[in-house]
Amino acid sequence: MLDSPPARVLAVITLCCVLGALFVGYGATTADPTRNDYPNERLLIEDPDDAIGQQVELSGAVVAVDPVVIAVENPTGDPLELRVTNVNEPVAEGEELRVFGTVESDTSIAAQRTLVREPWESSYMYVVSLLGGTWTLVRFIRGWRIDTDEWAFVQRKTPLGLRGWN
Predict the structure, then answer these.
(1) What is the end-to-end Cα distance of the chain in Å, rounded?
(2) Residues 26, 126, 124, 78: what is their CA dihedral angle, to the nearest 10 degrees?
(3) The overall pTM is greater than 0.90
(4) What is d(CA 83, CA 103) in angstroms, rounded to the nearest whole number?
(5) C or N terminus of the chain, fewer CB within 10 Å?
(6) Per-residue confidence at 19, pLDDT binned at 50, 70, 90?
(7) Would you list the domain boundaries of the chain?
(8) What are the φ and ψ backbone dihedral angles of 52, each rounded to 5 degrees?
(9) Shortest CA distance to 114 belongs to which of 52, 64, 75, 70?
(10) CATH fit for domain 38-118, picks 3.40.50.280, 2.40.50.140, 2.30.40.10, 2.120.10.30
(11) Residue 42: φ, ψ to 5°
């Protein structure tokens, strides 16, 4: 079925169009609380009175531990400081605290679930992912090539070397 180059090109174009349509379709959907898509800190910044009693999901840096206070980014000015109650795990200043809970007031959240992360964990995740992706790409390029007669990936008889490395 996909034996000829025009058929392969048509299949790739079709799949890219389907992927684009899925992106647009997903972007057009509305928030649904049953999908665990809860409001975030933007609700507290834009309409603090309307946020009271609603469940939110947000994260921020811990700035105090007794009581636990987190600083949430505020694009319109200074960070928004929120007191978090019902935190069941130990936290230290400087750590990142992710909170799922109910807004009690414009400055207080009753946590139902929390997750504590060290500041370096996000950087570590991205660096390791970048290294793994780069390693995979290099292995792929060294071991495979594009056959322009058949428009297909074919395995190289001998892997590409890196100036004397073979």
Answers:
(1) 37
(2) -70
(3) no
(4) 10
(5) N
(6) very high
(7) 1-30, 38-118, 121-155
(8) -60, 125
(9) 70
(10) 2.40.50.140
(11) -60, -40
